[in-house]
Amino acid sequence: MNISAVLLAGGESRRMGQDKATLLFHGKPLWQIQLELLQRLEPAGILVSARTDPAWRPADVQFVADDPPSRGPLSGIAASLAHMHTAHLLALAIDMPFMSENYLRYLCDQIEPGVGVLPKIGNHAEPLAAVYPREADTAFRSALASTDFALQNVVRRLVDSRRLREMRVKKQETKLFLNVNAPSDVAAL
After folding, report:
1. Whole-angstrom Cα distance, residue 116 to residue 52?
2. I want to staple 116 with a disulfide (CB 3.0 to 4.6 A). Which of 105, 132, 146, 153 is the partner?
3. Cα–Cα distance between 168 and 150 in angstroms, integer?
4. What's the Cα-to-Cα distance from 86 to each of 51, 160, 176, rounded to whole Å?
């Protein structure tokens, strides 16, 4: 697969009260679940984007520091786009433990030269499980240099400029996008 992948792990985990990456889910830490998922896709390279280099990061996975000022996933995707050596970047949030290999492969199969894919549930884009073209770098850098750090606005501009193509998420696939943000989420799942 001639795509790079990034595990976005730069959140502060304020609602969780502990580092989400190390949270056990079905007996494994979230970071391990998500990295194993990305490894099964066999991308050209795997990056971990965070504010600081996480202690749990395996030696064979490259660390990419979020672009300052830290603006959450916006900074992580921007930094990863700048470090990748492929035409596309698959971004995956650390807190989506239900995401599947088949769905990510499906997304990767939908890309075109200069165009990535953005899952969408109803009117809400899902930019933390999406594939970005290298050309999206300009939009991310512009957002970081402005006062509008909303990732939803960045992906909307990329859709409008035809750098991202929206993919409707089927009803039975919506569970793949469930994320864990608080201890109550873990108990509920």
Report:
1. 28
2. 132
3. 21
4. 23, 23, 26
Backbone angles phi, psi at 155, to 5 degrees: -70, -30
pLDDT tens-digit profile of 61-77? Answer: 999 998 776 778 999 99
| Calpha distance 103→117 (Å, rounded) | 12
For tokens 């000022």, what's the residue? 69
The gap between the terminal CA atoms of the chain, to the nearest Å, is: 32
Name the residue among 106, 102, 105, 165 with its Cα closest to residue 133.
Answer: 165
Superfamily of domain 4-188: Spore Coat Polysaccharide Biosynthesis Protein SpsA; Chain A (3.90.550.10)
pTM of whole model > 0.85?
yes
User: Residue 36 belongs to what H/E stretch?
Assistant: helix 30-40
Q: Where are the domains of the chain?
A: 4-188
User: pLDDT tens for residues 110-150?
Assistant: 999 999 999 999 999 999 999 999 999 999 999 999 888 89
